[in-house]
UniProtKB/TrEMBL annotation:
The keyword Phosphoprotein does not apply. SUPFAM superfamilies: Thioesterase/thiol ester dehydrase-isomerase. GO terms for cellular component: cytosol. Belongs to the C/M/P thioester hydrolase family. GO terms for biological process: acyl-CoA metabolic process; fatty acid catabolic process. Residues 17-101 form the Acyl-CoA thioesterase-like N-terminal HotDog domain. PANTHER family: ACYL-COA THIOESTERASE, ACYL-COENZYME A THIOESTERASE 8. Keywords: Hydrolase. This is Acyl-CoA thioesterase.
Length: 261
């Protein structure tokens, strides 16, 4: 199933995510985050954009096991809404997401967004083919082209990692859910410091979407650059920015990552 098909299927009471979207023993976090976002918007005033979402990966959302999503509107004010989604499998909570929605308002404060870094065009970067058994299953749906830092487990001592990304099969429309799904596709930037393959997983993830939202076409390449702020004792703290092809800031991401090595 494609990303678009899974979003459509999630409208029902239960969803079974296929193994093809796995990331180790869990489902790809970008997909579960996008599914949570898509469910939350159902309980919010139509047209009110999401400004921020915090995701806690309580346990692995397993492929091929029915998952239910419970959305709750915590509060709705004149301009701001607060929502929550729980993903439940086999009677236990696997993911909790909080969403903050806010309508626009007049303000005397205007600060230009962070500019996109210099990077070669995606057409000038080497494609990353999907290699079954070597790469996470979900990467068969998302292509990444490296511009910054090294590959995972390459022993490179860089703070930054990233490059261009897009769905290999573009959806009809790349909404906020699609942007959220793409953001989490990249491996944790700290993995390039290692020389041997070890497990790693996200403990928490925060996404902020820029509004008014810059235009992003369904088949457009998005530029991602992550920076490791600090790592130690098996944890890493990483922030990232995402820009469209015009160099306009689209989203901001922050993760706390657990690495077992």
């Amino acid at each position: 199933m494609t990303f678009e098909e899974l979003l459509a299927a999630s409208a029902g009471d239960q969803l079974i995510i296929p193994e093809s979207w796995a990331q180790g023993r869990a489902t790809f976090g970008g997909l579960t985050g996008a599914l949570a976002f898509d469910r939350m918007k159902e309980v919010v005033t139509p047209g009110r954009p999401m400004r921020a979402m915090q995701v806690s990966f309580v346990g692995p959302v397993e492929p091929d096991l029915p998952v239910t999503m419970e959305a709750e509107l915590l509060r709705e004010g004149k301009a701001v809404s607060q929502t929550m989604v729980r993903m439940v499998q086999d009677g236990s909570t696997r993911l909790v997401a909080l969403g903050s929605y806010g309508g626009g308002r007049e303000s005397a404060v205007t600060v230009p967004p962070v500019a996109a870094p210099e990077a070669p065009a995606p057409e000038d970067c080497r494609p990353t083919p999907y290699i079954e058994g070597l790469m996470p299953s979900f990467t068969q749906f998302i292509e990444m082209r490296w511009c910054f830092g090294g590959l995972p487990f390459s022993g490179k001592d860089h703070r930054e990692m990233g490059g261009w990304m897009q769905f290999r099969e573009p959806p009809a429309e790349l909404g906020d859910a699609g942007v959220i799904g793409l953001i989490d596709a990249w491996p944790a930037a700290i993995l390039q410091h290692l020389t041997e393959r070890v497990p790693a997983s996200s403990l928490s993830w925060s996404v902020e979407l820029v509004h008014p939202r810059p235009e992003v076409k369904p088949d457009e390449w998005l530029l991602y650059r992550a920076t490791t702020d600090q790592a130690g004792e098996g944890y890493g703290h990483i922030h990232a920015e995402i820009w469209n092809r015009k160099g306009e800031l689209v989203a901001i991401s922050r993760q706390t990552v657990v690495v077992f090595g």
